[in-house]
Design a protein that fits this description.
This protein is mainly α. The chain contains 13 helices and four strands. Strand 2, helix 4 and strand 3 form a beta-alpha-beta unit.
Length: 278
């Protein structure tokens, strides 16, 4: 029986093999549809940095179009870190400020909106810009959401969880940190507190109510190993923490499903038959 003290070791990656597999994934996805490259939003965080690093290695930096999309309250360090990541991997970095369109909506239409709604709107605006740029450039939009975020629903539907391909979706946060270090992501980016930077002072772990290493381990036991919540608790995890993670996963499960379509035929899209990809 797997015990808590051995779970973290089970999450360790072989960095060279993981890098090779993810580079092949990116290259294959781009070449299959005949795209010219990828578009990626560089936030200054470790997830987007790792995605950009993998894409630059897979396609060459000239085929990776990076964008920094700040709001007026964006932490100044985010711009600094995004520029450091772009420089580390030879990427040209364009900046498009989203303040005008965000303020135009909330000041004119929804002045009483809370921070969560404003943050969601910003995430969707950023993704809207990335998809527009992808159309202009003939590229695919590179996703940056990791497995922990996806399973916990810590993302904005049609915002940061929208993309054409996602090389990080099967990497827990600890694995993102490890692979980022392996590929030379600036250490300041790897070690800073994880934040969606949607409003001042926001951090991922405060929003989630659990630290990433614990979340990774509990999700690994629940999702990868197929254990029941009580079985996870029996391995040394606090019941309230496990309950919190189970609650987040269940209530946000809809975010990782494609649109729900009512079936009238025997071959409804997303429900039944699929056309072969290749």
């Amino acid at each position: 029986m797997i015990h808590r003290e051995s779970v973290a070791a089970r999450l360790a990656l072989h960095p060279e093999l993981a890098t090779a597999a993810l580079q092949d994934f990116i290259r294959d996805a781009v070449e299959t549809v005949g795209a010219r490259g990828v578009v990626v939003g560089l936030s200054g965080g470790v997830d987007s940095a790792l995605a950009a690093a993998l894409a630059a290695r897979a396609l060459g930096p000239e085929r990776v179009h990076a964008f920094f999309l700040p709001f007026r309250e964006t932490d100044p360090r985010s711009r600094q870190d995004a520029r450091a990541v772009a420089a580390a991997f030879g990427l040209a970095l364009a900046e498009i400020d989203i303040t005008a369109q965000i303020d135009a909506y909330f000041e004119r239409v929804e002045p009483a909106a809370d921070a969560t709604r404003r943050g969601n709107k910003m995430a969707r605006e950023r993704m809207s810009i990335l998809f527009d740029q992808s159309k202009k450039l003939g590229c695919l939009v590179l996703g940056t959401s990791n497995k922990t975020e996806i399973l916990l629903g810590y993302s904005t539907l049609f915002g940061d969880n929208a993309s054409s391909l996602n090389p990080l979706g099967d990497l827990y946060k600890q694995q993102v940190w490890g692979l980022a270090r392996h590929l030379g992501v600036p250490e300041a980016v790897v070690t800073k507190a994880a934040s969606a930077d949607l409003f001042p002072g926001q951090t991922d772990e405060a929003d989630l109510g659990v630290d990433y290493p614990t979340a990774d381990e509990v999700l690994f036991l629940l999702f990868d190993q197929g254990l029941l919540p009580d079985e996870v608790v029996a391995r040394g995890y606090a019941a309230e923490v496990v309950d919190r993670i189970v609650h987040l996963e269940k209530t946000n499960r809809f975010k990782r499903r494609m649109m729900l379509i009512a079936r009238l035929s025997g071959s409804a899209v997303n429900l039944d038959r699929e056309i072969p990809r290749d």
